[in-house]
């Protein structure tokens, strides 16, 4: 049964939220059952989160701050030219321009973001500069680029030969029309959220002082319309942290996350007493309920960690995994539960 048909069947049955989903399970070494409360810990979206977590852990394990940890973690996939959905080497928009979106936030409501940033690899670090060195929260486009260069970030061409080749292949059949989730249709594993359909990195950390921070960075949807901005740089959509409650981040089709103020929603659900996993699951179901005509065919996933370091995730489609790193488990990769099947 296709995901679409399975979703429609599910909708027709009017199944309660709780009845829709399989239980998440560990797919790699390490996840040791119920997470210990109060741990120093970092969690990241997707399997490339394992490497990101290592960079974050090198800071956390020495008593460093969660804000430094999430920035260091997010920079890892940003610099990886084999990763075509984050940073350098990301697939471009339909005009062949790589544009980056990123945000960062700490436990005290300090936050910053950049959207549609060109020519600068480490969008997450520019987002941090916006947070720390301007009175603003979000800079976009040419203004973001100008700010980054003024701050001393290196100007570089982000379109790698591999991404350029993929774009030119896409142009042959695309009729210059952007298609939602087109990276899946053209280059992914064939299903939204499949193993090759890697997307945004969202990363959340809790340091030894008990302080949370989060970051989120992406090159966005492949072949998007020029100027398109996704959820990742938007505080409350792709990322939200409230030190009194916890943090959340998202991956997948940003339009659906923005519509639902997704990460803010997850944090508010945790504030009302849900566990991180319950909150992510409810937010995913909200996305589905609010936009049934399209949401069943795309991937959206949320990852959350509460102020005690407990974590959880949920996705629309199967295939989403997240990485966890703490003193017990350095390289755990956990398969998320999903609404539309295991
Ligand atoms: N979640 C990334 C994007 O939609 O751009």
**How many alpha or pi helices?**
11
CATH architecture call: 4-Layer Sandwich
Instruction: Please state the CA-atom Rg, rounded to the nearest Å.
Output: 18 Å
Morphology: globular
Structural class comes to alpha+beta
Keywords:
binds glycine; 9-stranded mixed β-sheet; disordered N terminus; globular; 342 residues; single chain; 5-stranded mixed β-sheet; alpha+beta; Glutamine Phosphoribosylpyrophosphate, subunit 1, domain 1; 21% strand
Written description of the protein model:
- This protein is α+β, with helices and mostly antiparallel strands.
- The chain has one domain (4-338): (Glycosyl)asparaginase (Glutamine Phosphoribosylpyrophosphate, subunit 1, domain 1, 4-Layer Sandwich).
- 33% of the residues lie in helices and 21% in strands.
- The chain has 11 helices and 14 strands.
- The strands form 2 sheets. The protein has a 9-stranded mixed β-sheet with strand order 1-13-12-2-6-7-3-4-5.
- Helix 2 (49-60) runs antiparallel to helix 3.
- The longest helix has 15 residues, at 276-290.
- The chain is globular and about 50 Å long.
- Glycine binds next to strand 9.
